[in-house]
Amino acid sequence: MGQSFxxxxxxxxxxxxxxxxxDLLAAGHKVTVLDNFMxxxxxxxxxxxxxxxxxxxxxCRDVALVGxxxxxxxxxxxxxxxxxxxxxxxxxxxxxxxxxxxxxxxINMVSPDQRILMPITNSxxxxxxxxxxxxxxxxxxxxxxxxxxxxxxxxALLDRGNAISFRLATVFxxxxxxxxxxxxxxxxxxxxxxxxxxxxxxxxxxxxxxVRDVSRAFMHGIESFESMKGNAFNVGLxxxxxxxxxxxxxxxxxxxxxxxxxxxxxxxxDKRDYIVSNEKIERTGWAPQYDLDFGIAELIKGxxxxxxxxxTNV
Length: 314
Hints:
By secondary structure, this protein is α/β, with parallel strands linked by helices. About 35% of the residues lie in helices and about 20% in strands. The protein is built from eleven helices and 14 strands. Helix 1 packs across helix 7 (about 210-225), helix 4 packs parallel to helix 5 and helix 6 (about 185-195) packs across helix 11 (about 290-305).
């Protein structure tokens, strides 16, 4: 058992937090969640029995509230965000206030000895060079508003020091606060309910990571903080730098009657096309445990229970 910390998780009732918070509690940490519950989610019901769990309903943009909550924290994990290109495009004002202004103000308020572990998207790489892996040294060229804000926040975070940035691949898998709009989750949902999907720019490649492995990466960062701090790390499945077409062939193994076609016209709104190297985090002793096949099998079980639209972000 490692050292136990007081951990503040903003947006802790969201997709990542609903898996991470129980893991942090199981590791013996005291966890306080700040969330505005904008999706009316009850994703942390199962944590309420834990005496080390506390929750505050409030907004990460409320500077006075965040300042008060920071005073008791050893570690801050800022998950609160309007996540993804479509949602940010729909509400650019809210996106800037939540994803940029609130994050920068939090980074400025944290004292030098407090630690921050922050999720950043690897969509900052935008469009990569063919057959060339994006490493943490690759120039960031984000295309979406979401990516642009994340890249700016990461720079402030790493300039401050005493922090780790995790550049997450596209996350997949079941979570208590589900998101159906993420690529693997979305395609598997369509395969399960509709049996078909039409692909735009199906040769576009990206990297993927299971939501439980994201939580494991953060746990690893807490345990190995001294050796990892001051760095950005790509977090993804090294064997899953796949195009959308290749992803669909994996899903088809699980659901043989799934049909997918390439659309001759149309564009993907989320212009990502790159392959990513996860070697840097792997060298610290971390490796993912959950592959795409595991996640797809898990999603099929989940979708047997779940069919509605309250679980998407847009």
